UniProtKB/TrEMBL annotation:
The chain crosses the membrane at residues 44-65, 71-93, 121-147, 159-179, 191-209, 277-295. It is a multi-pass membrane protein. The keyword Iron does not apply. This is Multidrug resistance efflux pump. The keyword Phosphoprotein does not apply. It is found in: Cell membrane. PANTHER family: MULTIDRUG RESISTANCE PROTEIN MDTG (PTHR43414), PEPTIDE PERMEASE (PTHR43414:SF1). The lineage of its organism: Bacteria, Bacillati, Bacillota, Bacilli, Lactobacillales. It comes from Ligilactobacillus acidipiscis DSM 15836. PROSITE patterns: MFS. It comes from the Bacteria.
Length: 304
């Protein structure tokens, strides 16, 4: 990307990058498959912590590289970082073989999307992932504008918006390992229900904030709900998927997450245009209510 000469070449390379963007889903699948299932919640929460920390540090590092060098050099440095990740993964991450076979000796065929649709448990969980991302991303387009509305003269809108945006990630990094251990002890389904209820309350209250510091506090609490929900969904996917299908199921989960990343900003912008910024938080609370009702009425919740 650092050598492109026009925007279309950059567009094509970004698309190619997305096509090979399976590292996260496969790392989730690898951790899920290689970890004893009674400890999967804690292990996956640690992985979520690393991903969230990367999402927090990435924009900061990118901004620093662009200022210190240039846009093109930033792409070169990013490529070197990815090469290091490749080498570390290849030489230091060891996978124990776990191939399930049929009685005839033939390897079991991988799941198709038709199989996913017919499996109500997996479909519910990956749909939950999508809706959580819709909620997360729907707020992004209006966050800076909402912060500007709440700030008083003399406050830096840019700095305040950056702090508000960072709050969920900070609390997720701090809370995810604790929730992972807690879920392994009390039951992942209970932790997921708590995350839904906590999120719907926090989003509803966020719509009434009057200053940027209260907004910052509620965004911090939003990260706590994320720390409870995201690892719980992945843990339940692990527990309800045959070992030989773990990778493909987590790949579908990442695809649904990407759909949420796409639809979230579109819905958020539409709601802000038709109504106002505060209604987006009520919309997010409604999505969490739908998640909560769907999960509590499902066979999955009754099975635990």
């Amino acid at each position: 990307m650092g050598f492109v000469t026009n925007v279309w070449e950059l567009f094509a390379l970004r698309a190619l990058q997305g096509a090979f963007g399976g590292y996260v889903s496969n790392s989730n699948a690898l951790v899920a498959a290689q970890t004893p299932r009674e400890h999967s919640g804690h292990s996956l929460s640690i992985l979520v912590t690393g991903i969230t920390a990367g999402n927090l540090l990435g924009p900061l590092l990118g901004g620093f590289l662009a200022d210190a060098f240039s846009y093109r050099i930033s792409f070169h440095i990013t490529g070197v970082i990815m090469l290091i990740v490749c080498l570390l993964t290849y030489f230091l991450v060891h996978e124990k073989p776990n191939v399930q076979t049929q009685p005839s000796g033939k390897q079991k065929e991988s799941l198709t999307f038709k199989d996913i649709r017919s499996n109500k448990v997996i479909l519910l969980l990956i749909t939950t992932t999508m809706l959580v991302q819709v909620v997360t991303m729907s707020i992004n387009p209006i966050l800076s504008l909402f912060v500007k509305e709440l700030t008083t003269p003399g406050q830096s809108v840019t700095m305040m918006a950056g702090l508000v945006a960072a709050m969920p990630g900070i609390s997720t990094v701090l809370a995810a390992p604790f929730f992972g251990r807690l879920g392994d002890k009390i039951g992942t389904h209970k932790l997921l229900i708590f995350g839904f209820v906590f999120a719907m309350i926090v989003f509803a209250l966020t719509s009434f904030v009057k200053n940027v510091y209260i907004l910052m506090f509620f965004r911090l609490l939003t990260g706590v709900s994320d720390a409870a929900i995201l690892p719980s969904v992945q843990t339940l996917l692990t527990k309800n998927t045959a070992p030989e299908n773990t990778s493909i199921v987590f790949s579908y989960n990442q695809s649904f997450q990407s759909l949420g990343n796409m639809f979230g900003p579109l819905l958020g912008s539409a709601i802000a245009t038709i109504f106002d910024y505060r209604q987006i938080f009520l919309f997010c609370s409604l999505i969490m209510v739908i998640n909560f009702v769907s999960f509590t009425r499902s066979k999955l919740a009754k099975a635990y």
